[in-house]
Specification:
Elements lengths: L7 E5 L7 H10 L3 E5 L5 H18 L4 E5 L5 E2 L7 E3 L5 E5 L9 E3 L3 H4 L7 E4 L4 E8 L3 E8 L2 E3 L3 E3 L12 H13 L3 E4 L5 H8 L7 E6 L2 H5 L1 H7 L2 E5 H7 L5 H15 L3 E4 L14 H12 L4 E4 L1 H4 L4 H16 L16 H6 L2 H8 L1 E7 L4 H8 L6 E5 L2 H6 L6 E5 L8 H15 L7 E6 L8 E6 L1
Helix pairs in contact: 1-2, 1-12, 5-7, 7-9, 10-12
């Protein structure tokens, strides 16, 4: 148990890491969830990655989850005759529906529905905000604006409209095709990009089986306004700081991150902090001190998971980036004050009465682990929400539940074939036998058992001596 981390690591696969040997090394280094970014790569690339992950999962003898990250309605300009063109401050520049390659006066922007949503004075950010274009004139097939900042522009750069509520679905036709393919591959989580409201999650939910979990990526200002409803509709949240840092002023991002972490923790939903966490390790063998602090602060603030993007997908040191992230997390978790500020308020329910008592029992009884039956994962989530100072052993016969829990703080899922018991006493004896056989704690240790048997979940709590 001492080797387990409470906070999980998500690693993005890409050219630097999608071969079988590197994936195995990443598992050994501590990856719990692999992210497949469908903004890049072919279906065949992702299929091979899934094959490699499942092989590594067999060798590791513990569940590994796969997250399909949909591209979403990412707006992009077209191409230029010379790939890159210079810009001058205060010059006029046009976005239009003409598909021919652009020059330093215009470029293709194939979104007529977006043109209808704009008004003069709207700021358009291109290439993660490196270019700022302010709209002056609008027509059915084009807009004309003035360059406010930026000195060049190149092919296929992204476009952000921070002040505009986009009247487009969070799931594009490409996303629908990618989702269908991902479901065939057997992914465990689906990340929906550019979520603006709970309706975006509900529409995605209608397209996936019940056992697939949905994570909402928070990267639009409107999503912040609708945060609680989105958290309630989704199975998890990702603080996607890349586009979020373009859509809102940069100085607001840390506060928004803390707000999201606090709300997710209170509502009992897993939350991932993502983007540029160890960004310098894309090229360098070590991170900056500021990056180390960024990861540590996310852990201190209650993140269930932290994520690597380019660091593991295209960087020079994917395995080392995971190893360093693992070290940072473990250092925070060794701090005796780490969990003090992460307790949740008591709620009036039997389940809350039991689970909220767990941290105190663990602290006062020298408990080595907490065991529970995860038939749906609900009780396990409630236990995780309380942030007890002992690993949560979730026993389940369902590999979907086991992989789902890979993203949940403090949970270690054990997949067991037969969990049927006729009585509470039988259930307690079975837990004792499984935990001893799996060697998750040593003989003579105390284990806190939370739950019940059959349909009676969270109906008792007891300590057993192994």
């Amino acid at each position: 148990m001492s080797s387990l981390r409470s906070v999980k690591i998500v690693a993005t696969l890409g050219p630097s890491s999608n071969d079988p040997d590197t994936i195995r090394q990443l598992c050994i280094a501590g990856v719990n969830v692999f992210r497949l970014n469908f903004s890049h790569g072919t279906h065949e690339d992702h299929k091979q990655s899934v094959i490699n992950i499942r092989e590594a999962e067999k060798l590791s003898d513990h569940p590994i989850a796969i997250m399909l990250d949909l591209q979403g309605p990412k707006l992009r300009i077209g191409t230029f005759e010379n790939k890159t063109v210079p810009l001058q401050i205060h010059q006029k520049f046009q976005l239009d529906l003409n598909k021919t390659p652009g020059d330093n006066t215009r470029v293709y922007f194939g979104y007529p529905e977006i043109l209808k949503s704009l008004i003069p004075g709207t700021d358009i950010l291109i290439d993660d905000g490196k270019v700022l274009l302010r709209v002056d004139e609008l027509y059915e097939d084009r807009l004309i604006g003035t360059i406010q900042s930026g000195n060049e522009i190149s092919d296929r750069k992204g476009v952000n409209l921070p002040s505009v509520c986009l009247s487009i679905d969070a799931m594009t036709p490409k996303d629908a095709e990618d989702l269908s393919f991902g479901l065939e591959l057997g992914v465990d989580w689906v990340a929906v990009s550019f979520v603006q409201s709970a309706d975006d999650i509900k529409r995605a939910r209608a397209k996936v089986p019940n056992w697939i979990k949905i994570i909402a990526k928070i990267e639009k200002p409107l999503a912040i306004k609708n945060l609680n409803a989105i958290i309630d509709a989704a199975d998890g949240i990702m603080v996607a700081r890349g586009d979020l840092g373009v859509e809102v002023p940069l100085e607001r991002v840390p506060g928004i991150q803390k707000q999201i972490l606090q709300e997710c923790h209170y509502l009992g939903k897993p939350v991932v902090v993502a983007t540029q966490m160890l960004d310098s390790m894309v090229t360098a063998p070590t991170p900056t001190r500021a990056e180390v602090s960024d990861v540590a602060n996310a852990v201190y603030d209650g993140a269930d998971a932290v994520m690597l993007s380019a660091e593991s997908a295209s960087g020079r040191h994917p395995v080392k980036a995971v190893q360093i992230m693992d070290r940072i997390i473990r250092q925070v978790e060794s701090d005796p004050h780490y969990l003090e500020k992460l307790r949740c308020p008591f709620e009036e329910s039997v389940c809350s009465a039991i689970t909220s008592a767990v941290p105190g029992i663990v602290k006062r009884s020298n408990v080595s682990a907490i065991a529970t039956l995860a038939s749906s994962g609900t009780t396990t989530l409630r236990l995780s929400r309380e942030r007890p100072n002992a690993p949560i052993i979730a026993l389940t016969s369902d590999n979907h539940i086991a992989r789902y829990l890979c993203l949940v703080w403090g949970v270690y899922a054990l997949q067991v074939k037969n969990l049927n018991c006729s009585s509470i006493e039988d259930w307690i004896q079975m837990v004792r036998r499984i935990i001893l056989n799996e060697k998750v704690v040593s003989s003579g240790s105390y284990v806190l058992i939370v739950g019940g048997h059959g349909d009676a979940q969270s109906d008792f709590i007891t300590i057993v001596d192994l």
